[in-house]
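Q: Here's a chain of 68 amino acids. Please give me its 3D structure as tokens.
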Amino acid sequence: KYIEFIITPQLKEKIVELGYNPIFGAREMRRVIQDKVEDVLAEAILRDELKRGDKVEIEPKEFKLIIR
């Protein structure tokens, strides 16, 4: 779809915060990315909210999609 996904430092920080566990390491990070990022993008694509050339990012506090 030629959509640019912007990964902000704040989003990276939030993913690390939620996905890192001192006992298990970064094992949970994949689940956090799937639940908080991939699902939001997939829903927007299925609802046809994104169009060619859009730039999108995920707001890290509530994991909401921002379309620019």
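Q: Can you summarize the key feature?
A: The two ends are 15 Å apart (CA to CA).
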